[in-house]
Amino acid sequence: MIKYKELGFVTYPVTRMARARKFYEGVLGLKSNGFARRLKSAKFIEYSVGSSGTLAIGSSPAWKPSKDGCVVALEVVDFDATLAHLKRHRIKFAMGPIDAPLCRMVAIRDPDGNKLALHQRKKKAAK
């Protein structure tokens, strides 16, 4: 069984990062929480919203914007156990698993084709 910690983040795919940032930062007034990264062919920026929400935007040739909605990332307690659970249920991965510097993540699809991510932040290194 998968154990959940919280809603990790909500992500919208964008086609042009500079244009998207102009909207999210310039128009909506969101401030990057400092988590901006490049993954192989993708760019990704997170914005903190309130005390516990995170909105992210990402740009990748493999991930197209859609009027059908965004991707929700569910924060899991144990990523390895989550992967094992998904494999036992023969769930195909739409993306990943990815082992990024600050998190581990896999994307799957529900029976209607909606994409969702299961995600675990890595522990911050002691300074």
Question: Any descriptors?
Answer:
single chain; 127 residues; alpha+beta; 2,3-Dihydroxybiphenyl 1,2-Dioxygenase, domain 1; 8-stranded mixed sheet; 2 helices
List the helices and strands and how they pair.
Blueprint lengths: L3 E10 L3 H11 L4 E8 L2 E8 L3 E7 L11 E6 L2 H10 L6 E5 L3 E7 L5 E7 L6
Parallel strand pairs: 1-4, 5-8
Antiparallel strand pairs: 1-5, 2-3, 3-4, 6-7, 7-8
Notes on the protein architecture:
The protein is an alpha+beta fold and 127 residues long. It has one domain: 2,3-Dihydroxybiphenyl 1,2-Dioxygenase, domain 1. It has two helices and eight strands. An eight-stranded mixed beta sheet has the order 2-3-4-1-5-8-7-6. The relative contact order is 0.21. The mean pLDDT is 84.
Strand content is over 45%
Question: Rg to the nearest angstrom?
Answer: 15 Å
Q: Strand pairing plus helix content: what structural class? A: alpha+beta
**What is the H/E string?**
EHEEEEHEEE
What would the principal axes of the Cα set say about the shape? globular
Number of strands: 8
CATH class: Alpha Beta
Query: What integer is the average pLDDT?
Result: 84
How many structurally independent domains?
1
Q: How many individual helices?
A: 2
Low-confidence stretches: none
Q: What's the CATH topology name?
A: 2,3-Dihydroxybiphenyl 1,2-Dioxygenase, domain 1
Main β-sheet: number of strands, strand sense, barrel status?
Answer: 8 strands, mixed
**Strand order in space, largest sheet:** 2-3-4-1-5-8-7-6
Name given to the CATH architecture: Roll
Helix content: 10-25%
Kindly report the oligomeric state of this protein.
single chain
CA-to-CA gap between the ends?
34 Å
The CATH homologous superfamily is termed: 2,3-Dihydroxybiphenyl 1,2-Dioxygenase, domain 1
